[in-house]
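Weekly sync notes, structure subgroup
Attendees: PM, AL, DS (notes)

Item 1: joint prediction request from the bench team. They want all two components modeled as one assembly rather than separately. Inputs as received:
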Amino acid sequence: MDFSNTLRIAFRALARNKLRSALTMLGIIIGIGAVIATVSIGQGAEYLIQQGIESLGTNAVFIAAGSNRAGARTGFWGVRTLTVDDMEAILREVPLIRSAAPVVFTRAQVVYQNQNWRPRIEGTTPEYFQIRRWGVQAGGIFSEDEVRSAANVCVLGVTVARLLFGNQDPIGQTIRIGEIPFRVVGVLEAKGQSAMGEDQDDRLIAPYTTVQRKIAGITWIHYINASAISKEAAQAAVPQIEALLRERHRIRSPEDDDFFVSTQSDVAEMATQTERVMNLLLGSIASVSLIVGGIGIMNIMLVSVTERTREIGVRMAVGATEADVRRQFLVEAVTMSMAGGIIGIGSGLVGSWAIAKLLGWPTLISATAILIATVVAASIGILFGLYPAWKAAQLDPIEALRYE
Amino acid sequence: MSREAKSEPGARTEPNDRSELIRLENVHKVYHLGEVQVHALRGVSLRIARGEFVAVMGASGSGKSTLMNILGCLDRPTRGAYFLEGTDVSQLSKVELARIRNQKIGFVFQQFNLLPRTSALENVELPTIYAGLSPAERHSRALAALERVGLADRAHHFPSQLSGGQQQRVAIARALVNSPSILLADEPTGNLDSRTSVEIMDILQFLNEEEGLTVVLVTHEHDIAQYAKRVLEFRDGRIRKDYQVSDRWVAREVLPTLPTLDELDAVELGTQDLHAEGPVNPSEVW
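Output from the run, pasted for the record:
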């Protein structure tokens, strides 16, 4: 018996019990739909993370004070040993590093007229904007001279600008950080949320010298945001920086480092890893419903075989072989699961689109996910259709014809 | 019976009388029902020639159904040999038996066994699907078969839209569609009223007489057996009697003497008085 006929018979059999077929398919629809939706949300999140990490700078290398390694006693930012001298030494002695910016950060109350806010305050050099590829939407950034002279100038993130100035133009205005007046020289481009959900625009950036001396009252820095000449160079630079800093900080071999060097791809990997685990978790929950859907198909197919015992007997009497009968029921199960799969893909796409619209989450629809969903749906039909089909084929035609 | 005997090249053929269609040699069938062994057939030997019209009679449990299942290649004998057109089919595989059922045997059942919500035409097409014919060929063959039973105009009706007699005629068309060597009818009139039964017998007689089709019919009604040419009586798994029907009835001649369904309805409604004569007994025609 040719395939188009088998398919036609399967469609007719399913059409005969429309409600039942629809309910049976529902399990697969929900399963596939959930998988498609979670995967597209997951991929959207991954995309966002990648974007966020890329925004940290090209070929970025981070040299942070403190350590997060096993056995670390200080944690991040807990030591006072990292200095701008360290950064200059790195720039001098590690040629793989092209540029670097020191970063100190703190929080302080910022006041403009009757408005006030408490943003993250970062002190750095003009290189920072270049490494992070972060431009201004208005005004400009501070200069090297202003860093040297510890001038009271600052650049505002859009969140800070909005909160303090509303619709007013902040450029040239004077704000106070604590008791110290600062002149606003620029407003940064909006960056939005970081991969970790932090508002990157909620910050005020000033020369590090100013922040060190006038606001934080420290002499050290928290981390160095460096940029290597290439992605590979970033990896290669890590051990060189480590060796240099151990020497400068006089750390002997069994002792813990008082700094931590990582590259952009390290961070990316970590973030992606977390994201993957989340995806896997969501995906496995969704696949449970696929298994449940498959069991539903098996159940209905078994019912169908029993109900159609006589039909099977007739078909065998007029010349159907066991293989013909088996194929007929298998195709029916696969047709059901595939139809469910296709509807599921549709509803998954609609679902992720709705999530993107309503919740503002980014979703990314991948062709791979759709392809895999289709294959999975077909496999479920085959897997859970095999037993009912085998049972149908095993029927004795004499018994089947006599079946009431 | 002038039909030319087809020679069937097969793996195990025996040189024999070309007119011989079926030969059973000492066929036994034993069923194992748990601990109990049921001896359904106890050494049946039988020859049926082409063009015969055989009625198999017997009480239930006499072995006549088992015989039909074996003749129809739905079941294999426990012992003995079954030659169909010279080929020993008692040892064939399930797939080969399915092929023989498809090509050489036409089944008609008491319950009609049409597929529900499937048109008459498609029901008739069913065996042609498993014969691997092209859609066009299937269609034309099925239509031709329906024409032979006089139901071409009902081709697109569903079984539920047909009367019992019409359904059985569709079933006969289905049995004929692959031009089988033999038509096996298992109590074909068991679910039909007496007039419709005779109509069905008329078709079977027509196919037998005019087209030379070999018919084997299982029935427990003596009246129905009277339309056959030969009767086999079964008891306890053996053939007890095997005789030619001497005063054979011809359905075409019986039919005019029977009241139509409309007339029967009229009797029940009392608008027409047929009770005086009572239902016509076909045997009175002779």
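Discussion: Residues 57-263 of chain A form one domain.
Action: AL to compare against the crosslinking data before next sync.
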